[in-house]
Specification:
This protein is an alpha+beta fold and 141 residues long. 20% of the residues lie in helices and 28% in strands.
């Protein structure tokens, strides 16, 4: 994950990020907008407010693309910190742990990352996926 200042082009922060457990092992290759799919969703999001939940300090996301990620809020797809997102996990098992579809980041950087992007930032989750590329009204406007 890269956090960019669009005005300056500066990278403010970069981080590991885990994808949904049913999206793939090392790389995400399968995506869904369906509840209980445990898959990541591609596309454009706006960030909402923060809250303290099951994974501690977390950030609500609103999917902006109908049929692609617009169920994110109902699915409780949020940015949160997780123990299974670390270089140690990658060294031990060869890949990051998996979320239930959320973009999960390392616990030691999650608060800083969330505070930078909360309340109205654009979050873009991308993979070279022809179905998404062809279906996205935002990419094809």
């Amino acid at each position: 994950m890269f956090v960019l200042n669009i005005s300056t082009g500066k990278v403010l922060l970069s981080s590991l990020v885990a994808h949904g457990r049913n999206s793939g092992l090392e790389y995400a290759t399968a995506f869904s907008n369906e509840c209980e799919s445990n898959k990541s969703s591609l596309g454009f999001y706006t960030t909402g407010g923060t809250y303290i939940g099951e994974h501690g300090y977390s950030l609500k996301l609103n999917g902006c693309e109908r049929g692609i990620n617009d169920a994110a809020y109902q699915r409780a797809i949020v940015v949160h910190g997780a123990e299974y997102v670390s270089d140690d996990i990658v060294r031990a098992q060869g890949f990051l742990g998996r979320s239930l579809g959320c973009p999960a980041v390392p616990q030691n950087t999650s608060k800083k990352l969330i505070d930078i992007i909360k309340n109205g930032s654009c979050l873009f989750i991308y993979q070279q996926n022809n179905k998404y590329i062809n279906q996205s009204k935002i990419l094809n406007c």
